[in-house]
Design a protein that fits this description.
single chain, Ribosomal Protein S5, domain 2, Rossmann fold, 4 domains, eight-stranded mixed β-sheet, 20 helices, about 35% helix
């Protein structure tokens, strides 16, 4: 067979229905696309005027959205550069021929040419998702141009004729179809404009609104107000992320935060992003006061592209540990899919992710160095971000280890380096490992904390659900350092030393005591051992193995530890052979009496751990009354 070459044929009548129905994820995007196109047109005429290629009167830039419920039309008007009939044929009739791309290429050396929003040349066709007839009325800025009219019913047929527009610019008139009449509502259109057009760089007018203005004084000298109708401008054309930080006050940042999140507490602080190499990125990220329900606080960072809202799904751009931040990111270099609704992965996304991580680390380091006391006061809120980052991002850990704080039960704060220096003298075991003790619940574990404090051991507070993972990270990163929960064992055995207390019991007596307690407990998963402790320590201490308990805690947080979460609980029961109660048990030959005292001591240990409930708790109370 002879070799044959040719071109793949794409028929408009086949691809046009796909563009109309499946290109966009949500019908409401039609308004974003058409308003963005109108903004482009206004930006272009301003650019041409600044370059001396248009000498007419530019006028006040404006895009207007009009609704006619009776006629079932939505009109998007602008006073931009308009189009000739030939330009309509070129930019509208040729699918995916982007006028914005051609314009930017032509004027790529001009300042701020990238303000032009459009990219793919497909946005106009989103109109057919909601309209069964679309009409264009336009008049070009070019000298001697005649108005042109274009109509299309959603098929591949169109009509161009003389238009009726008398001023420069374009009207896009949508005759809304029966399936999309939900958009013939002022409230609905206002919601869409608030979502997508709130920060576009050209004023967007949508009807009018009533405002109260001062109207002199009354007889008592009080200010009078009167109601007036004014244009309803839906957007702020110069949001703070487009400005220099030097031109902004704290009030500006807080006002903007309240505009974005009107029902939120004031943020702790913020970071202004501004980079132009190797990619363009601006934005403001706020550190909020973190609530317990983390999922409710996610998706609060809004992604823009040249001030057009795109999405609040930013997990690829923003590191996972910063997903609880609030604010905005704006970049023309973030790769979007054809419908400008979703991110596409490429090297710029990774670079932006890395940049944001670095900026956050630098800001935290700056706050720590500038005012450590103020930083410590914010730590309960900041700590979640820092710990999460240290767990998940190696590069962030390397920076954060200098400003991450550990907090003890006296509410004192230490850097990692400071804390090691503090506890090393007393809390180094016989193998040279420094042992950090910590509590996950200061109330429930108070007895263990006090026992540790009696030995002058310091105890850290690690009470947040994420702390289980943070503890493991610290053990991996800190050289010759172990972390143990304060109730992982009796105080004497938390940190293994060379010195040991002598037992007052013989081997036979120890075995007898062990048997008495095993029979009194009579439950699987409880491993009894008799140990030599200080006579003043508790007679019985019940603890869970440190490794197993930690794995179970982490299993509750997820992260691939569910295997441990399903394993049965296993406890270590340490009997203090030097306690006077043990001598009392050994001194009686009545097995029932021995069992009663052993059971009481075990229940006390369970009670101290919050593990005594139901019928067992009731029996303990009755037995306590009997023993009084």
């Amino acid at each position: 067979m002879a070799t044959e070459k040719g071109s793949i044929s794409i028929h408009t009548e086949n691809i046009f229905p796909i563009i109309k129905k499946f290109l966009y994820s949500d019908n409401e995007i039609f308004l974003r696309e058409l308003v963005s196109n109108a903004v482009d047109a206004v930006q272009k005429i301003k650019r041409l005027a600044s370059l001396g290629q248009f000498n007419g009167e530019v006028g006040e830039p404006l895009v207007e959205v009009k609704l006619d419920e009776k006629a079932k039309t939505i009109t998007i008007s602008d006073n931009g550069l308009g189009m000739t009939a030939e330009e309509i044929k070129k930019y509208i009739n040729q699918v995916a021929f982007s006028g914005a791309s051609e314009f930017v290429e032509k004027f790529k050396d001009a300042k701020d040419a990238n303000e032009i929003i459009g990219k793919f040349g497909l946005g106009f066709y989103s109109a057919f998702m909601v309209a069964d007839l679309v009409e264009i009325q336009t008049l070009s800025y070019q000298e001697g141009a005649k108005p042109a009219k274009w109509t299309c019913d959603g098929s591949t047929e169109f009509e161009i004729s003389e238009g009726s527009r008398t001023t420069r610019g374009t009207d896009i008139i949508l005759h809304v179809n029966a399936d999309s009449e939900e958009f013939l509502s002022e409230q609905k259109l206002q919601e869409i404009l608030d979502k997508y057009a709130k920060f576009l760089p050209v004023p967007i007018k949508f009807g009018t609104k009533t405002e109260q203005v001062e109207d002199g004084k009354d007889e008592e000298g009080k200010t009078k107000y009167t109601s007036v109708e004014v244009d309803n401008i839906v957007n702020t054309t110069s949001p703070i992320w487009t400005k220099s930080p030097a031109d902004l006050s704290d009030k500006d940042y807080l006002d903007f935060y309240r505009q974005l999140y009107p029902f939120s507490d004031e943020p702790l602080f913020w970071i202004h992003l501004n980079v132009d190499y190797p990619f363009n990125l601006t934005g403001v990220l706020y550190f909020p006061k973190v609530k317990e329900d983390f999922d409710m606080q996610r998706n609060k960072i809004k992604l823009f592209s040249r001030q057009v809202f795109i999405t609040d799904e930013v997990k690829d751009i923003v590191p996972e540990f910063l997903m609880l931040l609030h604010g905005v990111i704006d970049s023309p270099d973030i790769p979007l899919n054809v419908s400008r609704s979703f991110l596409q992965a490429d090297s710029n996304v990774k670079k932006i992710n890395t940049y944001i991580t670095k900026k956050v680390a630098d800001k935290l380091a700056e706050l720590f160095k500038a005012d450590r006391k103020a930083y410590e006061e914010k730590w309960s809120d900041i700590g979640l971000f820092v710990k999460y980052g240290m767990i998940t991002e190696e590069k962030f850990y390397e920076k954060a280890k200098d400003f991450a704080l550990l907090t003890n039960t006296q509410n004192e704060h230490f850097t990692l380096e400071d804390y090691k220096a503090k506890v090393s003298p007393l809390q180094t075991d016989k193998n040279g490992n420094v042992v950090y003790l910590y509590t996950t619940d200061t109330d429930k574990q108070d007895g263990f904390i006090q026992a540790a404090n009696k030995k002058d051991y310091d105890v850290l507070v690690m009470s947040h659900p994420i702390d289980g993972h943070f503890v493991s990270t610290l053990e991996q990163k800190l050289e010759k350092t172990q972390l143990k929960r304060v109730d992982a064992s009796v105080a004497n055995q938390l940190i293994e030393k060379d010195e040991k207390l002598e037992s007052v019991l013989s081997e036979e007596q120890s075995n007898n005591v062990k048997t008495v307690f095993e029979q009194a407990i009579n439950k699987p998963g409880y491993n009894v051992e008799v140990v030599a402790l200080n006579p003043d320590d508790a007679p019985v201490t019940i603890t869970m193995d440190e490794f197993m308990r930690r794995m179970k805690d982490m299993a509750k947080m997820g992260g691939g530890m569910s295997f441990y979460g399903n394993m049965p609980d296993s406890y270590k029961v340490a009997i203090n052979g030097n306690h006077k109660l043990i001598n009392k048990i050994l001194s009686t030959t009545d097995s029932a009496e021995q069992s009663k005292y052993a059971k009481q001591a075990v229940d006390l240990a369970l009670l101290s751990q919050g593990m005594l409930t139901g019928a067992e708790l009731t029996a303990f109370v009755s037995r306590s009354v009997e023993l009084i």
